[in-house]
User: Fold Molybdopterin molybdenumtransferase from Mangrovivirga halotolerans.
Amino acid sequence: MVTIEEAQTIISNQNIEFESELVPLNDSLGYSLAEDIIAPFNIPSFDNSAMDGYALCGISKEYEIVGEIAAGDTGNISLNNGHAVRIFTGAKVPENTTAVMMQEKTNVEGSKLILDQEPAEGQCIRRKGEELQEGQIVFEKNYTISPAGIGLIGSLGKEKVRVFSKPKINLITTGNELIEPGKPKQEGQIYESNSYAISSACEQFGFLCQTRIHIKDAFEAIKKGIKEKLEVSDVLILCGGISVGDYDFVKEALEENGVEELFYKVYQKPGKPLYFGKKGNKYVFALPGNPASSLSCFYIYVLPFLQKLSGMKEVGLDKFSLPISHDFENKSDRPSFLKAQVFNNQVEVLNGQSSSMLHSLAVGNALAYIDAETRFKKGDEISCYMIF
Ligand SMILES: Nc1nc2c(c(=O)[nH]1)N[C@H]1C(S)=C(S)[C@@H](COP(=O)(O)OP(=O)(O)OC[C@H]3O[C@@H](n4cnc5c(N)ncnc54)[C@H](O)[C@@H]3O)O[C@H]1N2
Ligand code: MOO
Assistant:
């Protein structure tokens, strides 16, 4: 049995052999860069107008309009003192432009342009290189690509980016009592639901569970399933059958497949029988079958590991310390992750904390971490991991 901190340290200390791939920019959201992105040219790459209006040469209140430049025009026009050209947002400003005046502050009389006020030098001009200079590092390796990041990389003219590959994940659920939703249910059976919760939690954070299979509580079948799925996985997630019952075959089946145990059992509630192991550069999490245990363990242990494997710098759920909105006593002798709701900068620990109960996890948005046998008074600060 290890502590929560020990388990987290074992997970985060794994030496990872990172793989990278070239992906189309459009598919790169949520991936982490496997190389620095360097600006191949200045952004903006030419001085351009920030407004629809007039490019002006010299400081005055009256100008002669001598032409027009639209966005995308490539011509090289040069202005003389007292001249103005009609210009539009994003269009290249002519040489010798002193300033741009937005059209709302101008009056046109024939070819004369009359301003409400004199322009300030340089106003409404976006200068070449003011955002990024050629050769500058735009994003460092390990940057996780956001929508704005995709936009900026696109503006550098790149159509593909080299990113760290995301882990290949497969999921095995076990248990004789479990049947697929949609099928008729007999007394003593329950619907299999953990695979839905875990695979969608993967998706929530940009990971894909390649396959989900279900195996009955039969040692040989579980052993065979692990062998097959381990071959095609970077991370194999099992769910159920990891405790100490006569039909809990997962740990032994992992051993027989040559998986080395990195830890088994964490002093926590829920999720005590959590298992983590490895075979070569493949990793296995065996999550306890109780629905709230498996999903909590996914969030606290599996997610940061998947993110680490994907080359992310910041891993794990967002964590905040917030005041609790009511008195609370954790009666458990184990440190606990409690289903909670963060609202208006306060934390409410929800009813229905049993490891088998998903409703509180489904309507809540956080896991509140509380030490064993601890009392909280309303207003005391409590650590919250945000799950949504
Ligand atoms: N004698 C002991 N018994 C148990 C201990 C213990 O220390 N000593 N630990 C308890 C704790 S804590 C947990 S958590 C569970 C975990 O057990 P398993 O990982 O072996 O899970 P199962 O027994 O297979 O299932 C537990 C529970 O969850 C339901 N389940 C399982 N898989 C699914 C699924 N895919 N979808 C929906 N529900 C699922 C299953 O029907 C059981 O009700 O062990 C305690 N026992
Ligand atoms: O640790 Mo178990 O997950 O309490 O039910």
Notes: The domain at 48-126 is CATH 2.170.190.11 (Molybdopterin biosynthesis moeA protein; domain 3). The pocket of LQZAQKY5 (ligand 1) is lined by residues 173, 175, 177-178, 190, 192-195, 239-245, 248, 270, 272-273, 288-291, 293, 355-356 (CB under 6 Å). Residues 69 and 264 are 70 Å apart (CA to CA).
